[in-house]
Amino acid sequence: MSILAVGSIAFDSIATPAGRVENALGGSATYFSLSASYFTDVRVVAVVGEDFTAEHENILRKRKIDTRGIGGQYMENLNEAKTDFTELNVFEKFQPRIPKEYLDSKVLFLGNIHPSLQAAVRLEMDGIALTGGDTMNFWIQGSRQELGETLKLVNILLINDGEAKMLAGGEKNLLRAANKVLAMGPQALVIKHGEYGATIFFREGAFGIGSHPFRAPALPIDEVKDPTGAGDSFAGGFMGYIASQGEVNREVIKRALFYGGVMGSYAVEKFGTERLQSLTREEIDARFEIFRELTHLD
Amino acid sequence: MSILAVGSIAFDSIATPAGRVENALGGSATYFSLSASYFTDVRVVAVVGEDFTAEHENILRKRKIDTRGIGGQYMENLNEAKTDFTELNVFEKFQPRIPKEYLDSKVLFLGNIHPSLQAAVRLEMDGIALTGGDTMNFWIQGSRQELGETLKLVNILLINDGEAKMLAGGEKNLLRAANKVLAMGPQALVIKHGEYGATIFFREGAFGIGSHPFRAPALPIDEVKDPTGAGDSFAGGFMGYIASQGEVNREVIKRALFYGGVMGSYAVEKFGTERLQSLTREEIDARFEIFRELTHLD
Fold this sequence. Notes:
2 copies of one chain form a homodimer. Chain A is α/β, with parallel strands linked by helices. Chain A is 39% helix and 19% strand.
């Protein structure tokens, strides 16, 4: 089942203790799409400027990602806390253009862009069976009402610990924070814990699979070169695997959570999208097994 | 196989958002012993003052803990960062008194007291096959050399993320920090991640079980009433289960890590040692199964 990804495409200048790169292709739609492309067909909708060249497009095309929905205006990277948010006005004017070839998509991922844009895309798509979504502190603080509307359209929300607690009004207990977020609309909530893995919480009866949470570990790795895009890569593995299975059940969700962790762990091993461009499914499944062993009781 | 626990017995005054208690029986030896008593016979060595009454001793005796090694001088609680460390001199003078009935112990746990005292106890015991140990920031910063000597006597060290990174000289990467700590002596290192569970790292070939780490989750719980003693309770479940099995292999270690998490999660549900006094093995095994399900892929 193919997946439609909406989000940002941007150029990141990254400096970490391990080094630096300038103007690397980044943005939530880029990381998500590259990651998900190892599991299923991916279509992208994103707005870009003239800086986005054929060379950049080729990075996505080499992974057989459908790029017909990329176009329009230049967009600054919104994933970074350091973003100059005066640039956000670009979104107010931007109407996502969804190619008609995309309209039969069944699985949708709403990457981290303005919640009203996320909602607009979802509402334009009639045949969607499952919507995943992301958000961040900036929208939680600044666009609370719009985010509230969008959350009602999202089946599975993927955010990190800090975002979950903030979205739950400062609730410090993770389980209680999760329950408050689930009451806002999503049937399931994936909370990402960075190097400690991720936990999925369910609304009672969601997807017909009960309400017990499930937790997948992350691999303790030797060197984190660059954490940029880890969350979007996690989401790409998680949603990509679900889309590839064509149905949502407890076992699929559990494996998806492991694949999310695998893709996040690969993403941080090199700068920018470098590692995500050159993976093989064999490498992915080998790490899946390592993750499984890491926490498996006979 | 019985286990000998050495550590502090103290009286804690605890205040958390959920309430407060005054002069509750606490200390590393108390939490460890109560927790381990659900798995195997426990013997305690600790120094106490006149404040330690028959009523306190009965809390331990009800769990069939051998208290003949409790006596001597009053000792302030050293587990709290707020401890007045001028009191630490009591340790310099204190020579642990180990009843001769304890001398056939095979498994030893060195709770969080001065590293020189930990070493002294270990060196007095000839028949020990496995030594677990704990430490904390105060000793890492202030008694580095003594701690270094003690680490050579410890087979399995149990500390938290912050302590591991500090002990490794400020190394921020968890895997590299673990490898640096393992190079100091222990064959295995358990790093406790609080609500995210715990990971065990091995020296190459330790216990003949290879060097792949293993991670056990923790249960996301609704209300943490009082985190005091969670680490010692974890250690009690971990070491107690290993002692009950009489041998160390990969499967035993993995299950021990889960039992550690189970006991830690029970400890925080009520104030002080209250929950640890009233558990049943059935409740413990039921939560073990929940933890297993939490992260188990079919």
